[in-house]
């Protein structure tokens, strides 16, 4: 009997078992995370109003969003500028570089306008989850959460409690943190924060507060 060969076989079997165990742990962690996301979303959905008017508004917004994609399809391939990220048929820019110091809501908006865009309008679940994942990936753990937010194109400056996007549409589904928005000290502008639960990501804040920001822009036609 070749003892060395038997030992080698046992070692190989052991290594294989360890690999399968580690893969099972990874799969379990992924499934637990998915279950947590589902639970958070269910909790979020339970907190939403069930009246048909809001449901109708949401459907109309989705129809408008789908219609907005038609010109892009007809015109062919489009692209984003360098440094911008293409998601949900829109180009987004996250001001995460240390080259850009935090700015007030209006200053952040002016930056976006200067680039040919505006502050981000996060009017769908898909956009919100994608952006939440992006800002969480770029989160600086050393920065206090109060200073880790990103301005978005949402405010209630015209009428307190009536939140509107910069395109004039009224907010129908918000992803506010518990107790928000609370207008504590004249907070009329909205920001999204890198939180573990993406359905509790938004806070209202004073518009002169300084934060990072997220721009959006329509993709540009490719140069032929």
Report on this model:
It is a single chain. By secondary structure, this protein is α+β, with helices and mostly antiparallel strands. It has 2 domains: 1-79; 85-217, Mannose-Binding Protein A, subunit A (Mannose-Binding Protein A, Chain A), CATH 3.10.100. It is 41% helix and 16% strand. The chain is built from 4 helices and 10 strands. Strands 2, 3, 4, 5, 6, 7, 8 and 9 form an 8-stranded mixed beta sheet that branches. A hairpin with a 2-residue loop joins strand 2 (85-87) and strand 3. The mean pLDDT is 83. Pfam families: Lectin_C. InterPro entries: C-type_lectin-like (IPR001304), C-type_lectin-like/link_sf (IPR016186), C-type_lectin/snaclec_domain (IPR050111), C-type_lectin_CS (IPR018378), CD209-like_CTLD (IPR033989), CTDL_fold (IPR016187). This is C-type lectin domain-containing protein.
Write the layout of secondary structure elements.
Layout: H1 3-47, H2 52-75, E1 78-79, E2 85-87, E3 90-94, H3 105-114, E4 118-119, H4 125-137, E5 150-155, E6 164-165, E7 189-192, E8 202-205, E9 212-217, E10 220-221
Parallel strand pairs: 5-9
Antiparallel strand pairs: 1-10, 2-3, 3-9, 4-9, 5-6, 5-7, 7-8
